[in-house]
Fold each of these.
Amino acid sequence: MAGEANPKREGFFSKTDLPTVDKKWKGRNKFLRALNYVEKELHRHLWRGIQCCTHCKHTQTIAEYALDGWEWSGLYNHYIDQHDVRPSPAFIVFIEKEYATRHG
Ligand SMILES: [Zn+2]
């Protein structure tokens, strides 16, 4: 995919692998602004088919983002925005650093 041997993967959820929900996470808006910005600049790998949110009826084209040893699902943004999901601390640091670098 991105040429990385062991990419760190986030946001690929299923009925048996559910996300961490944290309604009280204060960094959500700031993080989503950074994530939206970074995603807009990235090439999205689109796959055939549709994936469905495990929490609601939201569906979208199967998509993945890959950058600097990380891979994350195109649905991750939706989980964070709509279902109070909190990403791992390492992913938060990665995205906010990337946003700062790109956005200035
Ligand atoms: Zn949903």
Amino acid sequence: MVAGSRRWAGLWPLALLLAAAGMAACAPAPVTAEVPDAPAGSPAPRDAVMGGVVVRDALPGSASGPVTILWAGDTLLADAAQERLEQNGYQWPFEHLLPLLDADYIIVNQEGPITVLEEKFDPDQRWSYNAQPEAAAALAAVGIDAVGLSNNHAMDRGPVGLADTIRHLDEAGVRAFGAGLNLAQAEAPLLIDTPHGAVGVVGLSLDWGANRTAGPEQAGTVVINEQSIRRGYELARAAGARWVVAYVHWGANYEPVGRREREWAAGFARAGYSLVIGHHPHVQQPIDVMDGMPVVYSLGNFVFGSKGRFDRDYPGYGLIAVSVLGPDGFESLRLRCILTDNYLVQYQPRPCNPAQSEAVLSSLHPGVEVQEGVGVFDW
Ligand SMILES: [Zn+2]
């Protein structure tokens, strides 16, 4: 949604279950509010059924019309782009992509903390980022409603950097999910209420080490495995989701789809998810369908301020995927190709030209039909 048209879910009290989570000892979670005291004998608030924090938004619309949720990939307003951001403003990198950001709800992968802290959490980490607080307002201004934090950079500035990130996003009006100051916050799904039922979005990530993995009283992300795949689904359903989407940071940089991603994708299908959207490799990867559940293995980059390491084998293309939700669930994906190689686009990614779109989108899956630069995928 574009800024100004968003309608916050004031109707839906955000629930925070302090007891199990030990949240009281942590910095306040900005996306939460205290659960109002329930009258004696009344059922527990729906959001609190499984414990944890539920981040919730509501979309206006009719019960018959489609709801569109746009998914984009790795986003970082920092690093090699920093000088240009300071010269041109933090919305400048989105300039050529704005016409594509047309959906009821927009989610991207925020790949790096938003904080003024510069000190590395792990001194040995090769690539380590932070974006300045202005980045959060820019995300909101271009229409981004929520960001996933389940990635290998969420903890680049440690727990304080993560707390800053969540706070800056909250102040800008952008929801965050997929990482948290403790496990309950990290594993809490994003809930998007739609006229066709709530969509739950679960953020999972590869294992980046014990000090970056969320625990009962430790900040971090949630590691993908069979157990967390099932638990993510259960948490989302218990919070009221009718449809559950995995937004997952997996695979290897500049590599094709691996065996583990295929196995996990099968696990998502078995658990009951409706859609899997992946990211991390910085390049786009194919689409698969498992037991009727589409898997977009990697979106590639969206607006990513690092130089990148693209070559002939792994050119700098990314995907913007719009899922269309109807009364019976997700009906189709509409895919756009974007050019993200910063050597070519100078930190202003742009839509692919018709030939690039045709080549990239038709390579994703034999079922993708490319019409005027849009790849339409029904399954
Ligand atoms: Zn990554």
Amino acid sequence: MFKLRLVMLLFLAFNVAKIRNYPMENVGVNSLYPAPQIVPGRPLIVKNYPAVENYQSDLYEVYAEPYSYDVRPLTAIALVQSEGEGSISGEVFFLQRHPPAGPVYVRANITGLSEGRHGVHIHQAGDLREGCVKLGPHFNPFLLQHGGPSDHIRHVGDMGNIEADSDGKAEFNYVDPLMSLSGGPRGIVGRAVVVTENPDDLGRGGTANSLNTGDSGKPLACGIIAYVN
Ligand SMILES: [Zn+2]
């Protein structure tokens, strides 16, 4: 079903105006269509993305409810290690109780950091052959600007900041509404978590880099996100 959803997402991104009786101008923010019945009892849901008032987007998510695929919880982990000789290490744990669209619970424990805030991001690639530097940009399947984890307009990979204490330890807990562990356009498994030298300004720095990377400096440590079990 998720595959169907993905196909329909792509289809709708280019053909939304062709849906019979539902012209483009009727699509509002997070609109819920009365829906053509593809299968009796399974309404077709059409949502504008991102769901932000006064934001013009041509991207729509389309799916039929209820889901009929396996919705058992998924878990994944990234073992984060220093770039080069550094002493940073830790774990970033991900849990999605209701894949593919439910929120992802993120819990991180990292040690060996310099005191203060450091950016944390998921980058597009998980290829560590050249350490933490060739992992592509922040994971950004919807081609939006950089932001913070609670912003509507953000990269899916924008996890914000962790704050290390005077012993270099940082703990981090939050719930992310965008990323998914089940593959598809928001899937993060197989990509990399990167901890940066500087704090992430969450796109609010006013500099050229702020809306790309949060001006968070070079990577200090990274790890590939992989399934648990
Ligand atoms: Zn970003």
Amino acid sequence: MKRFVWISTTLLLMGILACTFGRESNDAAQLSTTNVVETNSEVSILAALPSSATVDFGNPKGGTRQARHSLVPRTVVISVNGSVTYNIGGRHQPAIYAPGTKPNDINPSGGLVNDSNNRIVLGPLQVGGSWTTPVGTFSVPGRYLVICNITSHFFDEDMYGWVIVEKP
Ligand SMILES: [Cu+2]
């Protein structure tokens, strides 16, 4: 009887040990699977950096005056040497300034802003239609300020946005 109890206890202990080790190796397997997934998602984020973006530059159907003079989305992210297409809703004129330029740095010269200091490119003044930034606009990484060159839109309605340019 004593021998039976000893054998039973030994078997029970072996069972507990087997379960414990089994669980540890399962945890290790799950951990490495998680790492692989995280690595893959980092890769896919880098690969997903687009070379172009589209922005609604003003929206005549906006419910408020500010909504009619806004950039949607206000910020886009593209790769170096990419481009942005602005769908012009209403009468507007996009102007793009070098990275580091802030809205407070812009000085108007009348009904049109026309501040050429640090300006990289000035799009056409147009009603409707679309305009795509020319080659060379976003040749270096950084955060580019994009404003509407119509003074009242920029100063009264905060009509500006950003293009963040990153290395792919
Ligand atoms: Cu405008």
